Amino acid sequence: MPYRNKTFISGDWTGDQEAVKKLRKYNDSDHWGLSFRDVHNDFSSDGNAATIKKSISERLDNSKVMLAVVGDHTANLRSGSNSNVTGNSGKSFVQYEHDGAVKRDIPIIAVYNGKVDKSKCPDAIKDVAVAHVSVDDYQALNKVYQEHKNDALKKNR
Fold it and tell me: Which domains are delineated in the chain?
């Protein structure tokens, strides 16, 4: 079993890029104090759907927490959208990531790009997310991240 010591950021990289940038800003700044190892920095793929799915699985296997960015269109992403397609399943890569995190029992924090609105949250994570917070509410985000990061580390031992 791999050692889970990283954070998986999931989201519509086109539509919610500003929220992802904000998460990375919090992580990179000494001022904010949110500190995580982004699993995306350690893996790459060639753009082929099968290779991307394999890379996602490897990333999830090394992740202790998922920060699932939820934007205006996240719940409705399907194959062929900006999130691309995982193959014949009709699922987007974002859906594949969410399903994989649920399957692996990775704590999922739904991080909204703006105000928290659970109607925008994908069904796969809506009821299993350990928290629903706005990317703009750093205090709440940091608190819930620290709590669940530590829980995940305890599970790993």
Answer: 6-156 (3.40.50)
Sign of the Cα torsion 89, 90, 92, 98 reads negative
Look at residues 138, 17, 25 and name the one whose alpha carbon lies nearest to residue 73: 17
**94-151 pLDDT, tens per residue?**
898 999 999 999 999 999 999 999 999 999 999 999 999 999 998 898 899 888 877 6
Report yes or no: 116 and 69 within 8 Å, Cβ to Cβ: no
3-state secondary structure of 6: strand
pTM of the model: 0.84
Place of tokens 């750093």: 138
Angle between helices 49-61 and 93-103 (to 10 degrees): 30
Q: How far apart are CA 135 and CA 118, in angstroms?
A: 14
pLDDT tens per residue across span 19-67:
988 888 887 777 666 666 665 555 566 667 777 788 888 889 988 899 9
Of 102, 154, 107, the residue nearest 131 (C-alpha): 107
